[in-house]
Every structure is written in C-alpha cells, then in structure tokens.
Amino acid sequence: MTASIQKNMHAAGIVETKLAGLTEAYGSRLSEEQFDDYTEAEDELSFYITRLYRDVGMLAERLSLPILARDIQRDFKRLSKGALLNMSFSHQAGELYSTSLQRLRGYFSSLTTITKAGSVSGLQVFQTILENTAIIIRDSGIQPSKESEVRNEIVRVLRYSFRDTQKEVSAAKLLKVYKPDIGIPSLMAAAEYKFVSSESALKSSLDGIYADMKGYGGHYDWRTFYAVIYMTEPFAHQKEWEAEFNYTKADINWTPILINGPSKK
C-alpha cells in the first residue's frame, strides 16, 4: 500500500507544480485556455488529495494507530473544497506549495518509518499464503472443480496463522449483505476467490470483482481486499491484471492475484 501512496504522492506533486506555475505566471490574468488548464489542474489535485487522505488514514489504521487515523479523518472533514486547494508560499524554497498535500506528506513520512520496521507483517503473511494457493492445492492432493474447494483448503491453512479466519463473513450494506469468501477480522482484510476455467470466464470474473469493489466500498470492518483468480490454465499474466487495475483506477485497497493451479480435468 505504501508504494501506491508514494505513486499518488508523486502524481499529486506534479499537478501541484503545474498549478503553482500557472498561479505565479498569470495570477488572476488567465486566458480562457489557461483558465481551462488551471481548472483541470485544480480538479486533478483535489482528486489526489481526497484519495490520499483516505489511503493515508487507512494505512494508519492498519498500523494500529487509531488516534492518528482519527486525526487524519478530522483534518480532512474540516477542509472545504476551497481550503483543500489552498496554496502557500515557501520563503525557504521560493515557491508555492499545496498546504493540504504538505500535511499529507508529513503524515505519510511518519507512517513510512513504521512500515519499514515491518509492522504490517500480518498482511504480508496473508498475501503470501494467497499467492501460494497453487502450491497449497497441489500439496493437498485435491483436484478442485469449483471455487469452494479451493477456498476451503486455503481457509484451513490460514487458520494455522490466523485463528479468527472466517468463511463467507458478512459485510452488510443498506439493501444487500455482501459476503467475502475469506475474512480475517484482526487484519481487517478479506479475499474473494474466482474459479476460472476459460478465457471468457476470466473476463466475466473481472466484472464480478468490480461489482465486489462497489459492494464492499466504505465498509469499516474490511479495509484490505485481495481478488484471487484461480485459473485452471494460464489464461492471463499477473502483470496484465495489475495494469488493468491501474488503468481503471481500481480501489487502491484491492490487490489482484492470478493463480494457475491444478484442477479436475
């Protein structure tokens, strides 16, 4: 997650520089074309700052820093749209900068010190087990023909490390109850498995994952999600799905994992 936040911080910094350049060069004397560029840059910076407040707050929660997470949330709620885009002049650097983005950099800098110390090892263990699904299934000796057979075996292994591992946990929304295939409440993390035996099924599974993203979005109990695609043949490559998630700007708290594992022929 820290890598994704760093990427968005960098992108926001580029927009911040563009916005500062337009402000310093033209002030209120913007032409129509320059005004369009300025408005576009403002919208883009607003998008990144909003997303970063959410993601940096989530990182604080993952690191068991609830007070800091609440402070970040309160900080964001206090900001109107105008305040979100406030720019100040740094006499030391001799340039304009985004005050909101600067605060986020401060929060994130503190948190990265903790993450480098290995404080997110629980999530790393969870992800490693999911990434080793094919090996676990092979070693179990089963030849799965459906999703539940794969999931049940992974749940069995997960319980060696996480006693609170659950199957089909509830994530209730207003009109519907969503049930992640696997959930670990202590990590606030869940995994969705898709069993895929054809290229067309692989494409359909992507639609299902996007629907899951919307269904689980905004649910406090679950903050980290893994979409595990269990393929009976190598229909796609991991890098392709990572690129797809980046291209569609999928929720940053979702990680795709493609598995090519044994199955019943």
Topology:
Elements: H1 2-26, H2 32-62, H3 66-78, H4 81-84, E1 87-90, E2 95-98, H5 99-116, H6 121-131, H7 133-140, H8 147-161, E3 166-167, E4 171-172, E5 177-178, E6 182-184, E7 189-196, H9 199-216, E8 224-231, H10 238-247, E9 254-260
Parallel strand pairs: 7-8, 8-9
Antiparallel strand pairs: 1-2, 3-6, 4-5, 6-7
Helix pairs in contact: 1-2, 1-5, 2-3, 2-5, 6-8, 7-8
Integer-rounded radius of gyration: 22 Å
Order of neighbouring strands in the sheet with most strands: 3-6-7-8-9
| SS summary, helix count | 10
Helix content: 55-70%
Mean model confidence by pLDDT: 83
Number of strand elements: 9
How big a fraction of the residues is strand? 15-25%
List the secondary-structure elements in sequence, H or E: HHHHEEHHHHEEEEEHEHE
Cα separation of the termini: 37 Å
Number of domains: 2
Described by strand count, sense and barrel closure, the largest sheet is: 5 strands, mixed
